[in-house]
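User: Predict the full complex structure for these chains.
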Amino acid sequence: MSAPDLPAALAAASGCTPGCSPREVIWQSGKMRLYRYRPLPDSGSRSAGVPLLIVYALVNRPSMMDLQPDRSLIRGLLDEGVDVYLIDWGYPDGADRLITLSDYLDDLLNGCVDQILRRRRMPSLNLLGVCQGGVFSLCYAALNPTRVRNLVTMVTPVDFHTPRDLLSKWVRKIDVPAWVAGGNVSGHALNQLFLSLMPFRLAHQKYMDLYLSTPDQHAVDTFMRVEHWIFDSPDQAGAAFQEFVIGLYQENRLIRNQFAIGERTVDLRAIEVPVLNLIGAKDHLVPREASLALLRAIGSKDYTAREFGLGHIGMYISARAQQEVPAAIAQWLARR
Amino acid sequence: MHDSDSWRTWQAFAADAGRGHPSVLDPIREAAEHFDAAARRYLEETAAASQGTAAGAGTAARTFSHFLREQAARLWPPPWGFATVADGPPTGSPREPPAEPPAVGVTREHQQRVHRSAAAAQRMADAQSRLQWLWFDTLATAADAFSARIAGVAGATTTEPPTLRRLYDTWIDCAEAAYAETVHGEAFCTALADFVNASSAWRAEAAAGLELTAKIWDLPTRSELDSLNRRLAAIERQVRAGQPSAKRTRPARRGPRRPQP
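Assistant: Here is the predicted structure of the two-chain assembly.
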């Protein structure tokens, strides 16, 4: 495709949205939906194994896990015969400003686990937590150890005060209660914040690369789906956001076993189930040291860390991630 | 640099046009004269450097760059009217807010709110000034690094597309490196936090004023809605706490989708 054809290609791709694998809603609560992805036709009885619940972050949408048929971590897991479930937290509005982390974890996440365990008649399931969802998964596993069989964390921060953690440095002196002021935090504002981490690459070079690479229509479609996802950021419920930023980014309580969900304190040493920790070595949002700190925090004797030479988003959608990450997860789970 | 005849014509025009209204064109005239002086100095120093009689073209460029940075920082005063740039780079310590006048009478509360808003606006301006200085320093550092990296690179001055692409990528690398060094630093983090905190304070005062207006017109206010929301949330939590976990199921209902722009 030549440069003059690019505007037409972009226009043709403007309707491309992330999400491709068939799924059904099996439970709803408020704006949250619990999805089960339909097993692939040839997966046979393999999908009768222990279900895997994917817990995504509140910031950004989980559709990145299932971008398109050739860029879908979920599709890769389905190919491996995994029974996949996903929590979609939805889009908070003004009425949700008082939702706390306890509401998210003790009510909604726990409710999802209830639904899956009852549906599959099993005592425990596997959790895959992604980024902030990984923090939620760690907290849930620590507070409910009997309900989690195996735990996978992906690009998940545990130590929020590592030297290269720029977000942590930026928010350290901010008066968060005054900033939130009892309301929700705008998704657009968070977009700007994330772009500000590497503005020249993320807000300029990315577009120049597209223009100069003379892409085909498929590459343009992929680009536009990623663009759609990047700027589809939900607002953040104010109370939960405030708890997360103060407790973790400012006070770094999780690694010190002082982080509270409701009235219960999370002690990561209570996590004794097998843990697989997937890390992006080039992650600018969650530095690798922030994730590697998990080793010294948990009580599990079965801990595996896998590093990939990928960035934060590359861990979900890069071609290399499609080849390696789903298989790594499925094979690790199959042995446990 | 510019036509000396045109410059003299401009000076004559400015002197004549400002006769009846001296305050209108004075800032423009001063800015133009400052720029003219700085540009002449840069050209003279560069010419002297080429003859081996001055510190060097690099020093002249730095001096002129510093002048441009000062001028740029003065170009965008915030709408609330406070000056943003003191003499030279900000020291990091915010200026003292204006002395608070005594708030008396029936409008005492509103007077205090106006003063707090003004104080917050000044803190925003101070922080913004510091951030602007840091931004200009970052760009200057990036430019220096870029110049050093491409110096001596064969073909760096050609306009062939592969060369331009390498130059662009090199610029991005230099810019991100300079930016990272700045934004990880204490000065930037402090200025950013000061700006956010001051804007939060200003917004809180504005919200309080809007809430008062809503009360006057007997309109629902955010405080009332939050109070109702808290009561409702407490009731919901009590209901959930009373339910067995296996039966903690809510009737399926659709939540509202994201509002379309």
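Chain B is about 70% helix and 0% strand.
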